[in-house]
Amino acid sequence: MAIHTRPIEERLAWLWQLSQDHSAQYCDPENTLARQRYMAAHDTHIIALKCMDGRIHLPYVTQTPLGIISPFRNLGGIFDLGWPYLGDLLADEVGQAVKNGRRVLIIITYHYSRGAQARGCAGFNCDQAAAFQHAQAIQHQLHTIFGQSHQTVYPVVCGFETDDDALTLHGTHGERIDLAQWEPAQLGTLPARLAQVFPDMPAPVQRDFLPLLEGNVHHITEVRRSQREVDIEHREWMICLGRGFDFLHVPNIALIVGPFSPDLSHPIAQAAGIIRANMEQGRIPKDGFLLLSSAPYREPGSDHARAQLKAQFLANFAAQVITEAQPELAAKMITRTAVLQWSTRRLERFQAPQ
After folding, report:
1. In the listed set 200, 226, 252, which residue is the last one of a domain according to the structure?
2. What are the Carboxysome Shell Carbonic Anhydrase catalytic domain coordinates in residue numbering (predicted)?
3. Reported pTM
4. Between the CA of residue 83 and those of 97, 141, 171, 262, what are the distances in Å?
5. 219 shares a domain with 141
6. pLDDT, tens digit, for every residue of 56-96?
C-alpha cells in the first residue's frame, strides 16, 4: 500500500520515522568517517540551490556521502539573492568556508524530464526554458556578489534530468557536458572535458567537482539497468515551511517553501491549492494534510529557543494564510512544529506553549 493512500495518522508516523532514519544514517560511524575522509581529500565547500522536489537528491545521484553538499531548497528552485535573509545566509556560509581556507562551488539546479514535459518542474509550469533562464539569473547575481574571476566562489548552472537522474553542466561559453551521454568507460577523458568547458575553474575546484560527475555517470548506469518507474503523478499531502527538510527525498509527497522570499503568502497559498486539487481528484485521501514548520539550530540554549520561536512563527503565519485562502481545506490541517539539530540532522518535535 503506497504511503500517499494510507490514513493520515499512518502517514504522520511514517514521516517521523523517515526523519529519524535519515539522522541515524547521517550519524552512523561508517558514514561519519567516510564524510571526514572525503572532506580531507576534497576541501571545496559545495552548496546546491535546488527545487523542493524530492527527486532532486544530489548526494544520492552523485554517490556523495551525506553532509558534503549543503542544500538550499525552495519551491521551483526559485531564489532572489537580493532578499536580505537569503543573501545574508548564503554570504555567511561562503564567508565561513573562506575563513577556513576553502573555495566554494555553488551548483544552481533546474530540473526537467526528457520523457514527458508534464514530469518537469511545477514551479515553472513544466517550462524547461523558463527554469533554465531563472538559474542563469541566479548565476548573474552570484557574479555580482562574489565577483567574476571565480577564483574563490564558482557558480555552475546544472540541469537535472529526472528520468535518468542525469546532470547537464552549462559551461562558460555555452558549451555543455551532458552526463547522460557518458559511459563509465569514458570517464578517463572527463577531466580534460571539464577543463575545456570551464577554463576559468580553479584546478582544486575541478578536482573536487569530478567525483560528483563520475558518481553521476555510475548512478545513471544503475538507474537504466533498474528500469524504475518514472511516470509518477503529483500526490503531495504535506506543506513544509522553513528549513531542515533534507530527509524528504521521496518524490511528490511534499511541497517545501523555504524562508527565502519577502512574500511567503503566495507560495503557501499556491501549495494549499495543490493539496486541495490532489484531494478533489482522488490522488490522496481527504482525511487530512500536514503543515510542518521547522528551523535549524546549532547550539543549546538561546539558539535552540530562537529556532523554536522561528518554527512557531512560520506555523502560525502559514495557518493564517491557508485559512484565508482555503477555509474548507484548513479544517483538515494538522500542524506540527519542529527544530533540526544541525550536527546530527535530527528533527525534534516540540509543542508550543498555549
Report:
1. 226
2. 37-171
3. 0.88
4. 22, 11, 27, 7
5. yes
6. 889 989 999 888 999 898 878 899 999 888 899 999 999 99
